[in-house]
Amino acid sequence: MGKKVAGEKKKVVLAYSGGLDTSIAIRWLQERYDLDVIAVAINVGQPPSSDDIIARAKVIGALKAEYIDVKEEFVNDYIWPSLKANAMYQNAYPLSTAIARPVIVKKLVEVAKREGAKFIAHGCTAKGNDQVRFDVGIFSLDPSIEIIAPMREWVMTREEEIEYARVNDVPIIVKKESPYSTDENLWGRSCECGILEDPWEEPPEGAWEWTTSPKNAPDEPEYVEIMFEEGIPVGYNGKKKDGVTLITELNKMAAKHGVGRIDHIEDRLVGIKSRETYECPAATLLITAHRGLEFLTIQKDVLEFKRTVEQKYSELAYNGLWFGVLRESLDRFIDETQKFVTGSVRVKLYKGSAVVVGRRSEYSLYDEGLSTYAVGDVFDHHSAVGFIYCWGLPNKTTTKVHTRKKK
Ligand code: ARG
Description:
Number of helices: 13
Largest sheet: 5 strands, parallel
Strand order of the largest sheet: 3-2-1-4-5
Helix content: 40-55%
Structural class: alpha/beta
Number of strands: 14
Radius of gyration: 26 Å
Bound molecules: arginine
């Protein structure tokens, strides 16, 4: 693409965070590509910005600036499907950053359509997963859109960016420099860089922001009862809650007990191993509870097969293939498995752990008559012998044949 587009100015929709990178990107997109910038700030539950970022985008020179709250959509269309899939990348990371990208992408594409913009810009760098999630997400939804990633193109250090802002009169808020790079939304907080780049170093207390250190957590455990309907949490402790409220409140409750701290060496899609810490209090609590209810209500072969589906699902979400036929098809399978995942789970929160201590469901497959060792046993003991004969027969046959072989 050429530097300057001749004729009427074309438009670019920019994913705008209000930070240094995307603030100078507004000016940079105008200068380098001669585009009109529509800045879009999307709220997925990150802490509110301290100033009016929309007004600031306009001051910097955006043609339009928009703030879109997508928390509800994020919960219903991204978090709940992921929870039903017990989605954890590499069995460790509840994908909090990863699943927020597709909802942001969806909004950017919607705005681009509405505004007749042919370009979308985002502030991802060339080394991470997020650029893949943005780029692939955007062209999966609309193959005609061209993507500009200023941070992949310019080679400015932070100091040079500040200098660029100064020279170009871009008003920025230079925050106290943190050693960490972080990302937050309703489903969790990601933190990398600084001392964390040494995988041998224990994350210092300052790397954690949401959670109380288990050491300082209350000495008394707290019990919480999560109510599920068809795999989706609908309330806790007897009170119904909408999804955003439920997650917000459970984040606080679990964080108070130091629940949801994760320290992981992760395989990025671009081939790099990276060390990242996550704080996902509600996600940890809810995935634990959801699994607990599935063990009670889903039969063995479905549970086992679902584990492989869950792993595949997590990889698709992590690797930027959310908007794809395979993920959508797996969702249909998972939804089918959730029809009877209705009931309550009691979880004990204590000093960094969330443990299932009770579960009940009108569709419980647990049959006390079958499992009891006490009176009331209805299991047919005689059938065990015949079953074991057949079950072990291949092993018995193989051993007989193999032992015939001369040494
Ligand atoms: N590694 C995580 C992922 O790819 C989080 C990336 C963003 N992390 C950050 N600290 N900015 O999903």
